[in-house]
Design goal:
- With 359 residues, the chain is α+β, with helices and mostly antiparallel strands.
- The protein contains seven helices and 19 strands.
- The protein has helices at 67-71, 94-107, 115-128, 201-216, 262-273, 285-294, 333-346; strands at 2-5, 10-13, 38-45, 48-49, 53-56, 74-76, 79-83, 89-92, 140-149, 162-171, 179-184, 221-224, 240-245, 248-252, 277-281, 297-304, 308-316, 322-324, 356-358.
- Strands 1, 2, 3, 4, 5, 6, 7, 8, 9, 10 and 19 form an eleven-stranded mixed beta sheet that branches. Strands 11, 12, 13, 14, 15, 16, 17 and 18 form an eight-stranded mixed beta sheet that branches.
- The relative contact order is 0.14.
- Bound molecules: pyridoxal-5'-phosphate (PLP).
- Pyridoxal-5'-phosphate binds at residues 78, 199, 235, 238-240, 259, 261-264, 304-305.
- Pyridoxal-5'-phosphate (PLP) is lined by residues 78, 199, 235, 238-240, 259, 261-264, 304-305.
Length: 359
């Protein structure tokens, strides 16, 4: 083990003696199945974050009584590093992910992660596994930071100890086939005052059975409705929902039950810069159905880190009726937004918003 000094933070680094890099066929990577050589790990104990380490990616050893497995103090983030055309590696809005991680931590009664620990750990890890960042157009290194409670104690109370880990995974250019989604009238993802705005593990477990049912009916994802009235659109899968109604980009306003996506935020900033009218407000399923029937709904898409922009081709009303959206053309707003975001990340468009952070 060799302790290296990053600018401000000592990280104990143990390099793998058997890199798996040569085993990877970068042209045929399935999302989420290939993991880079190392991971960043830091434990919270005795009320403080301990010395961080980078170690070979590998299994964890946990007590069966590990609190997170029983009571769900478990949160995560999803972000990407991109290799630019000149070979440099950049992170996209990493501080936004840290701020959201700490919002999730606060809601789940978990300790906040100091900015320096997160940023230095993240950069040191990506630098060490630099050769795992693919370079083909549209490819990237997916980054998964997460934290969970580790007390081996079978009583319901906040854990004293926590583990924070970052691992990474090279991913191919994401091709999203146009999505078929439908409104969900019975199940809800998150309620006002609940944990929907947090990337808390349980939110995703709770969405699986309703989503599986929709998939058995031939849809890819649900369009969740609000828990109180089952009238207003929340979001879709792990993506925020955007609609082009007439010439206006309309998206549900974020709330305690909607995840405040970094992609959503970036899409809205770009659209506003281009002079597109943007409305963040409640959008009812009835409004959308009417817009579908009168032909004013021109585009619908999901936005999130994995896909950037995922076009929606079909919206089911949840009562058996499917509406088809017009096919996209090269100048659809969703296409232009996706193309511009990709170009900013690749360094072929100027980063006028200051979204990129060099590794
Ligand atoms: C992660 C996530 C999003 C998208 O957030 P990004 O920061 O854009 O990746 C949207 N909705 C849910 C429920 C999510 O978990």
């Amino acid at each position: 083990m060799s302790a290296i000094l990053t600018p401000a933070l000592p990280i104990a680094i143990t390099r793998t003696s058997a890199s798996r890099l040569h085993e990877v066929d970068f042209d045929h990577i399935e999302f989420g199945k290939v993991f880079s050589d190392h991971m960043f790990v830091v434990h919270f104990r005795d009320g403080a974050w301990q010395t961080p380490a980078i170690v070979p990616y590998g299994d964890l050893s946990l007590s069966p009584a590990t609190s997170a497995l029983h009571y769900g103090q478990a949160i995560f983030e999803g972000m990407k590093a991109h290799r630019q055309h000149d070979g440099r590696i950049v992170l996209f809005r990493p501080l936004d992910n840290l701020l959201r991680l700490n919002l999730s931590a606060e809601r789940m009664c978990m300790p906040a992660l100091p900015e320096e620990l997160f940023m230095e750990g993240l950069k040191a890890l990506v630098r060490l596994d630099e050769r795992w960042v693919p370079s083909a157009a549209g490819t990237s290194l997916y980054i998964r930071p997460f934290m969970f409670s580790t007390d081996g104690f079978v009583g319901v109370r906040p854990s004293n100890d926590y583990t924070f880990i970052i691992f990474t995974s090279p991913v191919n250019a994401y091709y999203s086939q146009p999505l078929r989604v439908r409104f969900e009238h019975h199940y809800v993802r998150a309620a006002e005052g609940g944990t929907g705005f947090a990337k808390a593990a349980g939110n995703y477990g709770g969405a699986m059975e309703p989503t599986r049912r929709a998939q058995a009916e031939g849809y890819h994802q649900l369009l969740w409705l609000d828990a109180a009235e089952h009238r207003y659109i929340e979001e879709s899968g792990t993506m925020n929902a955007c609609f082009v109604i007439g010439d206006t980009l309309v998206t549900p306003a974020v709330s305690s039950s909607i995840l405040d996506g970094v992609t959503r935020r970036s899409v809205l900033a770009l659209a506003r810069q281009w002079g597109v009218a943007v409305e963040e407000r409640r959008v009812s399923a009835a409004e959308l159905v009417e817009a579908l029937e009168t032909g004013t709904l021109r585009e619908a898409f999901g936005c999130g880190t994995a896909a950037t922009i995922a076009p929606i081709a079909v919206i089911g009303d949840g009562h058996g009726r499917d509406y088809e959206l017009p096919a996209w053309s090269a100048d659809s707003l969703g296409v232009r937004l996706g193309r511009t975001l990709d170009a900013i990340k690749a360094g072929t468009e100027p980063d006028v918003f200051g979204w990129l952070e060099a590794v």
